[in-house]
Recover the amino acids of this structure.
């Protein structure tokens, strides 16, 4: 059996039919290859035109009121008005440097929409071409942004059931949000899912700098540095002094970026303070609603510490599935009776069984 299954819900998962063991697609039993193919393999999806929703998630930065508040853009696909409030609403949050148009977001959205759910594709602040909407930077600790989106859609549509799905960094955000609130979370929030979630930031940042992972690190770092350049043009009073200092040219790792950009502009003492403060692993024991976490042992750069794994295993609300293979956010299985996107099939089955069944 290729998957290792933990927590008391394992037997129920098999009995209720939403779980299947993961077998990697042929030739994809290497984590790097699985990750790259999962990211670049062309996909097809079918969704109605979305309704755009802007949500204010943070007020104006002190001393820079003229730039206005930070807002995030969501793309919403609502079921018919007469059934909308009763249907499960799925809120999807992408990973680092992704967007509401990331392939896995669109793939999950199509599945959920076809199953009769409302779908909200949330962009993190600055993502999806929305730099101009966000004077503040985005990072792995902005779980309050998820909270604001949830609050607004509940208020606007009187929704009765919401589930959160986060991939990688988005997984950290939704798990941190759910764990921070614990039993005090909105009654409408029924379940949360993390796929390859970035729960232990310090360990994962160190893994990203390992020689075999420098390809990924360079990709992320180049994109993040470009974003700071755009920020300097859009909000010069905030970012131009840093840009003109020449520090951007001295950033050679994501830890450097977190030390000098995220910590500096995000209100953290340093990178270590940031990694510790925002890690959803701190709340693993406080998750008090049905939770699904999918993690692959051959993920190239997401590391889960033993104590985090143990806390998840011991939490009776958590369905924790750890597979030998799967890469980062990929989990491509043989296309046998379905398209082979195992994680997407699993998580939708979990949500429909848990929230609607």
């Amino acid at each position: 059996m290729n998957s290792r299954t933990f927590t008391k819900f394992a037997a129920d998962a098999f009995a209720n039919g939403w779980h299947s063991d993961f077998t990697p697609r042929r030739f994809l039993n290497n984590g790097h290859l699985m990750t790259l193919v999962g990211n670049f393999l062309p996909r097809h999806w079918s969704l109605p035109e979305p309704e755009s929703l802007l949500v204010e998630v943070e007020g104006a930065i002190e001393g820079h009121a003229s730039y206005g508040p930070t807002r995030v853009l969501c793309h919403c696909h609502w079921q018919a008005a007469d059934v909308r409030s009763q249907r499960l609403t799925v809120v999807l949050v992408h990973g680092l440097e992704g967007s509401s148009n990331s392939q896995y977001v669109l793939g999950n959205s199509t599945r959920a929409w076809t199953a009769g759910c409302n779908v909200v594709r949330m962009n993190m602040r600055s993502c999806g071409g929305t730099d101009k909407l966000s004077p503040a930077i985005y990072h792995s600790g902005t779980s309050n942004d998820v909270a604001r989106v949830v609050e607004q859609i509940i208020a606007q549509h009187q929704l009765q059931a919401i589930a959160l799905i986060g991939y990688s960094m988005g997984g950290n955000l939704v798990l941190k949000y759910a764990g921070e609130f614990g039993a005090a979370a909105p009654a409408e929030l029924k379940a949360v899912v993390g796929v390859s979630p970035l729960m232990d930031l310090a360990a994962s940042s160190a893994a990203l700098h390992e020689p075999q992972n420098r390809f990924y690190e360079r990709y992320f770092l180049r994109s993040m540095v470009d974003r700071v350049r755009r920020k300097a043009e859009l909000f010069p009073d905030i970012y131009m002094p840093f840009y003109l200092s020449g520090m951007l040219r001295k950033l050679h790792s994501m830890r450097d970026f977190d030390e000098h950009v995220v910590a500096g502009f995000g209100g953290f003492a340093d990178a270590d303070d940031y990694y510790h403060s925002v890690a959803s692993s701190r709340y693993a024991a406080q998750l008090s609603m049905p939770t699904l976490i999918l993690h692959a042992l051959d993920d190239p750069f997401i590391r889960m510490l033993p104590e985090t794994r143990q806390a998840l295993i011991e939490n009776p609300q958590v369905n924790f599935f750890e597979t030998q293979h799967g890469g980062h956010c990929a989990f491509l299985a043989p296309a046998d009776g379905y398209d082979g996107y195992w994680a997407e099939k699993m998580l939708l089955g979990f949500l429909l069984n848990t929230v609607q069944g």
Observations:
- The CA atoms of residues 152 and 171 lie 20 Å apart.
- The longest strand covers residues 51-58.
- The beta strands are 3-6, 51-58, 70-77, 89-93, 118-122, 162-167, 189-195, 291-296, 318-323.
